[in-house]
Amino acid sequence: MIEAPDLSLAALTPLLFVFGAALVGVLVESFAPRHVRQPTQVALALVGTVGGFVSTLLIAGRSEVTAGGALAVDGAGLFLQATIAGLAALSILLFAERGLDPAKSAFVASAAVPAGSPRDRELLTDERVQTEVYPLATFAVGGMMLFVAANDLLVMFIALEVLSLPLYLICGLARRRRLLSQEAAVKYFLLGAFASAFFLYGLALVYGATGSIRLSEIRESVSTDGTGTLLVLGLGLLIVGLMFKASVAPFHTWTPDVYQGAPTPVTAFMAACTKVAAFGAILRLLYVAFGTADWTWRPLVYGIAIVSMVVGAVLGLTQTDVKRMLAYSSIAHAGFLLTGVIGLGGGTGSGLSATLFYLLAYGLTTIGAFAVVTLVRDGDGEATQLSQWAGLARRSPLTAGVMTFLLLALAGIPLTSGFTGKFAVFRAAIEVGAWPLAVGALVTSAIAGFFYLRLVVLMYFSAPAEDGPSVGVPGLPTTIVLAVTVAATLVLGVVPGSVLDLADRAATLVG
Amino acid sequence: MDPVPATGLLAVSWLLIALPLAGAAVLLLGGRRTDRWGHLLGIATVTASFVLAVLCTVELAGTSGRSVGVDLFTFISTGRLDVSAGLLVDPLSMTFALLITGVGALIHVYSVGYMAHDPARRRFFAYLNLFVAAMLLLVLGNSFVALYVGWEGVGLASYLLIAFWYTRPAAATAAKKAFIMNRVGDVGLALAIFLMFTQLGTTSYAGVLGSVGLLAGGTVTAIGLLLLLGACGKSGQFPLQAWLPDAMEGPTPVSALIHAATMVTAGVYLIARSAPIFDAAPVAQTVVVVIGAITIMIGAIAGCAYDDIKKVLAWSTVSQIGYMFLAVGLGPIGYAAGIAHLLTHGFFKAGLFLGAGSVMHGMGDQTDMRRFGGLATKMKTTFVTFGLGYLALIGFPFLSGYWTKDAIIEAAFDRGGVSGYLLGGVAVLGAGLTAFYMTRLMLLTFFGKPRWEDGVHPHESPAVMTLPMVVLAVGSVAAGFVLVQLAPLADWLAPVFGEPEEAAAPAIPPLVVSVLVTVVVALGALTAWVFVGRREVPTTAPARVSLPVRAARNALYADRVNEAVFMRPGMWLTRALLWVDDRGVDGVVNGIGTGLGGSSSRLGRAQTGFVRSYALGMLGGAVLVAGALLAVTAG
């Protein structure tokens, strides 16, 4: 007989909520008549994500290891879960937007139809909508929330797959520019599988070295037996797998192509939620399992942080596509986040709360930015060429204003959440003596500022093109998203105290 | 009783599986070089297996206990899970081995003629060989895991063969449907195996079936029901019956071998093999019986309404397997009867399918019976062999079906009480319907005025095709008598199912049952003659029909229900798989330069758009990471 592991159901409510909604979503997809599917699925996905969000708030303050030691429910974990669920709810709203595309959805109605075929051209205007995307996204959200709570490398790996597989799929569901979308999905899938293999091999090596996959037991083994070659190699491969998901250079190569090819709401979802989840796992791995041997990985993460910031900022300069530009921005931000990881010091620094805050702030801002991208359209769908954005402010001052504000936040200009976040992580890095890193980060954030500002200048100071894009009138869902993200970016920039405080109190990792 | 170690010829009984497997390997790997003689190799391996099976059976009959184990190698050995691969040679497995290799060899021969003009004939024979090997593994394995491996193997072969003409959209869709509906069943089987393992720590037949008594009642019932789900998927039983008629898109020899004689009966084998589990779980057993009864009716009713000759035969198969389920669900009294019907059905249904294939061969691949008619004089051998198969199927006195189907109907009545009469009544009614739809098929195909399409010149098929039909027709006539009267199968199978027990006092005397069935069958056939044989047959199906007919044409709408439950999610899955296949595999193999061309125009030298360079970049990064970590720890 196998004994059932102890399960603290209360502590798992957020996960149960999200996975429950995803499973019901599958049933709805199978049984509900076509015309009610879209509203039902949207409602269900929102209930799942918002329910997950609320339940994390309700059980805030818990700190325990449950499910037979496989899951850690602690302050940081719950904060990250709440962040993921909240950001996911916003992304779902973007998915649900029906007012922008003439065909009423950003997703193709039948993904298997060959791109460019006559049937495909019919589908472009067909008002049938794709609703499979909602349960898929909800599954991904569940995987992400599991990922940040995993106290066990195997559970972490499973969560990684659960979050990744649906993402691979929904990346390929764009209604327009299908080939680009499908290409993106395949690339993401192939490279993601490649990265998963790294992670899995690392897991095996770590298990071989320590005899355990439980993070706490690995830590004990590290403190008693020290670090052998096998363990260090395993750690390295685990880091590679996680850095891939976090789109940290040099494991970022998929990011621009996938961000560009995926349907924009999906890009927003990935940019925000996947990043949060991946960093949650990185924090857990590095501090719970290898916190006592931080001298092994600290120089490495140091170096990777610099590489990522530089790659993101410099390559971002040459981009001519808004979505690709935001992708490079995401890579640079991953580097900034790693400074926060360094700032955690031996586990006592303020790096953890800083990283938590940064993730929340960046997630909100980036969803807002991608939401604006969905608004600027021409006859072929979204107009993502930078040149097409020229003079946008004259056509639609409000849209240009919102985008400018969000870009400033990404650049880290004061009075936006971006500034508060950067400030927090840089301070944490300096506190532990990593000031060269902080200096490097400041320099690269200045470089990165260039390309954000370039777009701002383009929108305000260039003459609009003759047949330039128009700005769509957002429906209610997108309006909500824009309102929330702009407000949050502002609030976290102006009065961040309470949220920083919350992040501080949440900054505990058990294991 | 634990099987005794194998000696002599039985020690090499693994050759039964290895021979066709080697044939498949040679044909698949050998490529075009084997085109010229590939089909001969295919026949040779299966025939050799058949000869070996006969010799093994003779040897087995001489051993005491008639249960022989052959250990091969350790299959999985990690921690608590220890599965060793081995074979179990006993009367049940050898009976199936004979059926599979015997009918298999005949159908291989037939296929030489049937597929003569197909450029991919070698591939066809490779798949057939693969199927035979997997099916033999399924029945000869000594554990549920070995059975599962074979189970998946026959599923794969079936999928490949249904989609053999994959350029036809219908074939591709049917293959997908079969694949997905089988997956539903396979999940049940897999869960049952996991459950056995967690509860008993073993999956071997000896270990599991010997310790059923140690398990809680609920667990046994759960295992039984999960096994039944697996059996329903593979055998096209309610509620997973919808894939089988569609599977007729495959070449006709495939329909005969896989979807009539062997693979679809694997569910019956599974239940019979797991007899101790079902005997200990009355609930599960009752469900088996009910499913069998429901399926008898669904198959028979749907069979009455279709115009496609192969689909009628397919629904008939569904219905006949329903009889077998009914039999094995009745417990010890029915196991041998079910297996006997399985064997005779293997003969006459395979013969009927081969006959249908012969008709199609002569009629330019037409399958619509409304465009046949009057073929009795044009295709004499086909007519006679098909006619004998028909008589055997409807249970014409003293032909095969009469013996084995009556035994099942008697056993159903012997169950006693209301349920006994109900089940017996359903079985009798099913027999009447069978007579109706099969007579209708005969009348439409071989009698009446010709309704051929222009330019069709029916002709008899070559000897290579008619010869197997003749052999199977002989079997259709005699097998029932041999298996029930001459050398009772029940005695041969006694080491597996226990000595056959006579019902103390039959609810209805066998003679009465026999007469009753015969009368009902005659009524069914007569009705068909009244409604079909005496009238002019329109070449297109009448559109304005009554509600029951419309329901029957839609297979009682079960198809549609299944589609909602399985196909919608299934189609999504397939789409996803196909998409990954198309884009992913092709993209990597040959399309990096062309397929991903959209990337070429992008700026950024580092961002080439090529997955390979991205992966290389990641690999480089990983090497750097590992190097840096090692440098730090070493330094």
From TrEMBL, chain A:
<feature type="transmembrane region" description="Helical">
    <location>
        <begin position="325"/>
        <end position="344"/>
    </location>
</feature>
<feature type="transmembrane region" description="Helical">
    <location>
        <begin position="356"/>
        <end position="376"/>
    </location>
</feature>
<feature type="transmembrane region" description="Helical">
    <location>
        <begin position="266"/>
        <end position="287"/>
    </location>
</feature>
<keyword id="KW-0520">NAD</keyword>
<feature type="transmembrane region" description="Helical">
    <location>
        <begin position="435"/>
        <end position="461"/>
    </location>
</feature>
<feature type="transmembrane region" description="Helical">
    <location>
        <begin position="473"/>
        <end position="495"/>
    </location>
</feature>
<feature type="transmembrane region" description="Helical">
    <location>
        <begin position="43"/>
        <end position="63"/>
    </location>
</feature>
<keyword id="KW-0813">Transport</keyword>
<comment type="similarity">
    <text>Belongs to the complex I subunit 2 family.</text>
</comment>
<keyword id="KW-0812">Transmembrane</keyword>
<keyword id="KW-1133">Transmembrane helix</keyword>
<keyword id="KW-0472">Membrane</keyword>
<keyword id="KW-1278">Translocase</keyword>
<dbReference type="InterPro" id="IPR001750">
    <property type="entry name" value="ND/Mrp_TM"/>
</dbReference>
<comment type="function">
    <text>NDH-1 shuttles electrons from NADH, via FMN and iron-sulfur (Fe-S) centers, to quinones in the respiratory chain. The immediate electron acceptor for the enzyme in this species is believed to be a menaquinone. Couples the redox reaction to proton translocation (for every two electrons transferred, four hydrogen ions are translocated across the cytoplasmic membrane), and thus conserves the redox energy in a proton gradient.</text>
</comment>
<keyword id="KW-1003">Cell membrane</keyword>
<feature type="transmembrane region" description="Helical">
    <location>
        <begin position="230"/>
        <end position="254"/>
    </location>
</feature>
<feature type="transmembrane region" description="Helical">
    <location>
        <begin position="133"/>
        <end position="150"/>
    </location>
</feature>
<feature type="transmembrane region" description="Helical">
    <location>
        <begin position="156"/>
        <end position="174"/>
    </location>
</feature>
<dbReference type="Pfam" id="PF00361">
    <property type="entry name" value="Proton_antipo_M"/>
</dbReference>
<feature type="transmembrane region" description="Helical">
    <location>
        <begin position="299"/>
        <end position="318"/>
    </location>
</feature>
<feature type="transmembrane region" description="Helical">
    <location>
        <begin position="75"/>
        <end position="96"/>
    </location>
</feature>
TrEMBL record, chain B:
<dbReference type="InterPro" id="IPR001750">
    <property type="entry name" value="ND/Mrp_TM"/>
</dbReference>
<feature type="transmembrane region" description="Helical">
    <location>
        <begin position="212"/>
        <end position="233"/>
    </location>
</feature>
<feature type="transmembrane region" description="Helical">
    <location>
        <begin position="312"/>
        <end position="333"/>
    </location>
</feature>
<feature type="transmembrane region" description="Helical">
    <location>
        <begin position="339"/>
        <end position="360"/>
    </location>
</feature>
<protein>
    <submittedName>
        <fullName>NADH-quinone oxidoreductase subunit L</fullName>
    </submittedName>
</protein>
<feature type="transmembrane region" description="Helical">
    <location>
        <begin position="614"/>
        <end position="634"/>
    </location>
</feature>
<feature type="transmembrane region" description="Helical">
    <location>
        <begin position="420"/>
        <end position="443"/>
    </location>
</feature>
<dbReference type="InterPro" id="IPR001516">
    <property type="entry name" value="Proton_antipo_N"/>
</dbReference>
<feature type="domain" description="NADH:quinone oxidoreductase/Mrp antiporter transmembrane">
    <location>
        <begin position="142"/>
        <end position="426"/>
    </location>
</feature>
<dbReference type="Pfam" id="PF00662">
    <property type="entry name" value="Proton_antipo_N"/>
</dbReference>
<dbReference type="InterPro" id="IPR018393">
    <property type="entry name" value="NADHpl_OxRdtase_5_subgr"/>
</dbReference>
<feature type="transmembrane region" description="Helical">
    <location>
        <begin position="124"/>
        <end position="141"/>
    </location>
</feature>
<feature type="transmembrane region" description="Helical">
    <location>
        <begin position="284"/>
        <end position="305"/>
    </location>
</feature>
<feature type="transmembrane region" description="Helical">
    <location>
        <begin position="92"/>
        <end position="112"/>
    </location>
</feature>
<feature type="transmembrane region" description="Helical">
    <location>
        <begin position="147"/>
        <end position="166"/>
    </location>
</feature>
<dbReference type="Pfam" id="PF00361">
    <property type="entry name" value="Proton_antipo_M"/>
</dbReference>
<feature type="transmembrane region" description="Helical">
    <location>
        <begin position="254"/>
        <end position="272"/>
    </location>
</feature>
<feature type="transmembrane region" description="Helical">
    <location>
        <begin position="187"/>
        <end position="206"/>
    </location>
</feature>
<keyword id="KW-1133">Transmembrane helix</keyword>
<feature type="transmembrane region" description="Helical">
    <location>
        <begin position="464"/>
        <end position="487"/>
    </location>
</feature>
<feature type="transmembrane region" description="Helical">
    <location>
        <begin position="40"/>
        <end position="62"/>
    </location>
</feature>
<feature type="domain" description="NADH-Ubiquinone oxidoreductase (complex I) chain 5 N-terminal">
    <location>
        <begin position="75"/>
        <end position="125"/>
    </location>
</feature>
